[in-house]
Design goal:
The structure is a homodimer of 253-residue chains.
Chain A (H helix, E strand, L loop, with lengths): L13 H26 L9 H4 L1 H23 L5 H33 L7 H25 L5 H42 L4 H25 L9 H13 L9
GO molecular function (chains A, B): metal ion binding; transmembrane ascorbate ferrireductase activity
Catalytic activity (chains A, B): Fe(3+)(out) + L-ascorbate(in) = monodehydro-L-ascorbate radical(in) + Fe(2+)(out) + H(+); monodehydro-L-ascorbate radical(out) + L-ascorbate(in) = monodehydro-L-ascorbate radical(in) + L-ascorbate(out)
Main location (chains A, B): membrane
């Protein structure tokens, strides 16, 4: 199939970068699962700290790994129709949103049952900001790119903002996870953290892997040579809008 | 002067975005200064916690505010020669580097005198990573763009990586500051942080302002319409290299 003239090959290096991002992303999810499962007592839904443990796992899985993969669909599925990829992008984001809502419910429920104050920390402020902006970004993306009412001019005007804030939100999500890791180790193992105990080193390594995943996804998405080639009809549309707009750039994200 | 045909005006909105970034950046520096000066006992160089207080101020001033401004010189000084702006960019980074070295010395000296373990936290790992990559980025930037030996082809090949990793490092620096804020409030005011005491709210607000500064600098730098217009001789050079390279983009950062 790869040699067929009908199916253009991926740009040199792209499959390796995508594979690398998946290894890093899965490592983040697995290490979070092991941290909470092995070192912090496992999972439950009973208001105990084991319910809290659902929170980090859902956030890393939803708002980082699946969110990053939702961004990557435009680079991975290069030969599908643009509408199919848009729908896949939106569906990935909805799954990420649902999983992160479960994560939010877990921590608020744990706080309510343990009579712990909500929303006082920088981690919680950044997390709520990320979540709200994520919902706004999804709604705007749906309205502009999937809802039939938006004009091509509006879509083109909004596209670069959508891409920029998509990457800002990924960075915010990763940053918020790092804040959560720091809070968790200081609440749980503050007295032994400075002795390089395995749990502390694992938590730090998770932080660096999350940074690595975010940087790799951002790198793949921003490389000009990795952009999805427009299909013939999209190219015609792009050329048309280049004549209408000054200094226009290609309209595929 | 602004109406002279010899001095092209800035693109619509750019001065406002740059002014906004300066307000946010200065607010970050001032709030850090007030936090350490008013709430944490002020500054000294005696191995006490007042020496530690030099660390956050230097890091926010050097690795965030001046680092961000070093990036912005390409958008602010639009009509100077490219070589002058390159030198200004490198000099700003050297000042940022010197200030951040003072910040590093402050915290290592405080740890040494207080017999506190170094480099065990995620904050310290991210901070050291940022600092080392910043030095590598500076050296590579100097070698490729200021040292006369590098060919135009090498410069052009490296430029997009330099810009990408420059923004990654700004994000890492901001993220590391947020981790430092979280560590500091949990070490200093853990028992009252959840009661929304003024110091905790100020620290959280500082975190959000740092995020705002980073996002605004990244926005200004990545907008196509805010790019520095190439001077006639640079344009000729750019056109020349466009014929040599496939799908070449303009060579000004």
């Amino acid at each position: 199939m790869a040699d067929s003239p009908m199916v253009p090959q991926s740009p040199c290096g792209l499959p390796w970068y995508v594979a690398g991002s998946q290894v890093l992303g899965l490592a983040c999810v697995i290490i979070t699962g092991v941290w909470m499962g092995h070192y912090r007592g496992g999972y439950a839904w009973d208001g105990s700290s084991r319910e809290f443990n659902v929170h980090p796992l859902c956030m890393v899985l939803g708002l980082v790994f699946l969110y990053g993969d939702a961004i990557l669909v435009y680079r991975v599925f290069r030969n599908e129709s643009k509408r199919s990829i848009k729908i896949l992008h939106a569906v990935f984001h909805v799954i990420a949103l649902i999983i992160s809502v479960v994560g939010f419910v877990a921590v608020f429920d744990f706080h309510a049952k343990g009579k712990i104050q909500d929303m006082y920390s920088l981690h919680s402020w950044c997390g709520m900001l990320t979540f709200v902006l994520f919902c706004v970004q999804w709604l705007l993306g749906f309205t502009f790119f999937l809802f039939p009412g938006a004009s091509q001019w509006l879509r083109k005007s909004y596209l670069s903002l959508h891409v920029f804030f998509g990457l800002v939100l990924l960075a915010l999500a990763v940053g918020t996870c790092l804040l959560g890791i720091t809070e968790k180790v200081l609440f749980s193992i503050e007295s032994t953290y400075s002795s390089f105990v395995p749990e502390g080193v694992l938590a730090n390594a998770l932080g660096l892997l999350l940074v690595g995943f975010g940087v790799l996804v951002a790198y793949i998405v921003t490389r000009e040579e990795f952009r999805r080639p427009p299909h013939p009809e999209e190219e015609a549309l792009s050329m048309h809008f280049k004549t209408l707009t000054e200094g226009g750039s290609p309209s595929s994200p």
